Give the backbone structure.
Amino acid sequence: MTAQKGSAFLLKISDGADPAAYQTVAGLRTTQMSIQGDMVVTTTKDSGGWREMLSGAGVRQVSVSAAGIFLGSAAEARVRTNAMNGTIDDYELSFEDGEKLRGRFLVQKLDYSGDFNGERNYTLSLESSGPVASV
């Protein structure tokens, strides 16, 4: 198994069409994904001091964070519109090995920053709403 390039970890957003086409949110320099499992702690005094878990009984979620340079693409504009309106939309995460994850996400946070004589940067955080599936 070889290491995969971080530059090949792409965040894409649906164009809203049916069937959907996904556009890369351009200019991303860093991306991160976190998956939280679905377990519930069921430890009791009879557990002998060991934590016990009940799988499949809790809430699963996927969180995505990214940062990059603002380029003014249509995909970035759609993300910004979703953030302003609190809209849940379809997103895709794609990886170098061809694996893709798709699901509906809410833009939890969108920050812009920039320096005089420098590029405009942004960071964003997405939280899943519903199932996220491999395609």
In short: Residues 14 and 22 are 4 Å apart (CA to CA). Strands lie at 10-14, 22-24, 28-36, 39-41, 53-55, 61-69, 88-94, 100-114, 120-134.
